[in-house]
Structures are given as structure tokens and as C-alpha cells.
Specification:
The chain is an alpha+beta fold. It is 43% helix and 16% strand. The chain has a single domain, classed as Vaccinia Virus protein VP39 (Rossmann fold), CATH 3.40.50.150. Helix 3 packs antiparallel against helix 4. The model has no long low-confidence stretch (mean pLDDT 86).
Length: 145
């Protein structure tokens, strides 16, 4: 990532979002993240502008492809660590909890693998205002070192 003499010059927003406006899947809204919402990329950028944030760099190219293997690894670790998780609070972390999170992790991995999917993983580099030449590189060359 870029270097800056002032770490407050820029930040990264890393989030799951839709291409286009879609409802967040009912299963996720009801069982995994109650009341949760997956915004579109356009909605996030508009809200950033409303807050006076300047988009410096948007990477939407390849991160979606990387998220399925990440979810696969999380599902495998979740299964491997299930006895320890359940031991923390057997009433809360019951069989229903385990099944919900397995469906979520495995189902989301397949959603991110699907070529027809509209849910992506975005990173937006932004600043609080006009960033200077010293606050962020002038090209993307730092990304390809």
C-alpha cells in the first residue's frame, strides 16, 4: 500500500457489495446478520461523496474470485474448531447455530464462485479531501511491485 507522511491522508474501505441494486438475501438478513444490508457499489460511492470523502482508487477487478477460497478456508476452520466453539457456550452455540453458519459459509463461497453472481468484494481507497501528491502515489505502480 502507499506510504504517506500523514497516515490520516487515506484509508481503505473493504466491503461486500452488489453490482446493481438487489435485496440482501433473506437467509442472511434473518439468520446471519439480522437487519444487515448489502449495498451496491454505486450507493456506497454516493454516500462517501455525501460525507465529503474523495475516492482515490477503486479496485473491483479480481477480489471477487479470491473470496470463495477465503470462505472455503473459514468453513474448514469452523468445522475443525466446532468442539471448542461449542464449549464456549453450549446453549448459544448449539446445532442450529452450527448448521446456519455452515450453510452461510459454504453457500456464500458458491455464490462468489458463480459466474452469474452480482455480489462482489470491493476495496475503495479514499481520503477526507483533496489528497496531495505526497499523500498517495500518482500511479498504481505501487500495487504491482
Amino acid at each position: 500500500m502507499p506510504t504517506s507522511s500523514n497516515p490520516a491522508d487515506w484509508a481503505v474501505l473493504h466491503f461486500i457489495g452488489h453490482i446493481g441494486r438487489y435485496e440482501t438475501e433473506l437467509f442472511i438478513r434473518k439468520h446471519v446478520f439480522p437487519g444487515g444490508w448489502i449495498p451496491s457499489l454505486a450507493e456506497v460511492i454516493v454516500e462517501m461523496e455525501h460525507c465529503g470523502l474523495e475516492v482515490v482508487d477503486v479496485d473491483v477487478e479480481n477480489l471477487r474470485r479470491h473470496y470463495a477460497p477465503t470462505l472455503d478456508a473459514w468453513a474448514e476452520r469452523f468445522d475443525r474448531q466446532w468442539p471448542a466453539i461449542q464449549a464456549l457456550d453450549p446453549e448459544r452455540f448449539d446445532e442450529r447455530f452450527r448448521r446456519i453458519w455452515r450453510v452461510y459459509l459454504i453457500g456464500c463461497a458458491e455464490m462468489f464462485r458463480s459466474p452469474a453472481g452480482y455480489t462482489h468484494l470491493f476495496q475503495i481507497v479514499f481520503s477526507k479531501g483533496n489528497i496531495t501528491r505526497n499523500g498517495y502515489p500518482m500511479s498504481r505502480a505501487h500495487l504491482y511491485v
